[in-house]
Structures are given as C-alpha cells and as structure tokens.
Design goal:
It comes from Gossypium lobatum. By secondary structure, the protein is mainly alpha-helical. The protein has one helix spanning 13-73. The protein has one domain.
C-alpha cells in the first residue's frame, strides 16, 4: 500500500495534522495566489496587445494605402 505519511503510533497524528496540515495549507494558498497573478498578467498582456499592435498595424496599412492613392493622383 502507498501512503504519503506513515505513523508508528496513533499519538503522532496530532503533530502530523497540525504541522504538516498547516504547511500544506500555506503552500496551497501560494498556488492559488500564483494562479490569480498568472491569469491577471495574461489578461493584461492581451488587453495591451490589441491597441498597440493590431490597431497600429491596421492604421499603418490604411495610411500607406492613402499615401499610395495620393501619389497616384499627382502623376
């Protein structure tokens, strides 16, 4: 049988639950905070990607087409 902890006597259960349970609770809290942070960073990257890259590139294409059209009319 596989287990995470092995106890020689039942009296060691209190320390196992209080010490290791507390440490596992803290580690789980850090994992939850990390997930919130990671998701917030991902959303902010997507939020800033659209105005700076997608809109600017389409604006440059639009302005380039206008300049080409304007240059064709001057000939």
């Amino acid at each position: 049988m596989a287990s995470d902890f092995a106890m020689g006597q039942f009296r060691f259960l209190k320390r196992l639950l209080l010490v290791h349970g507390y440490l596992n609770y803290q580690h789980l809290g850090y994992v939850v905070l990390y997930n919130f942070y990671r998701n917030a960073v991902f959303v902010l990257m997507l939020f800033w990607y659209v105005p700076f890259f997608v809109v600017n590139l389409s604006l440059l294409n639009f302005l380039g087409a206008l300049l080409k059209r304007k240059g064709e009319n001057t000939r």
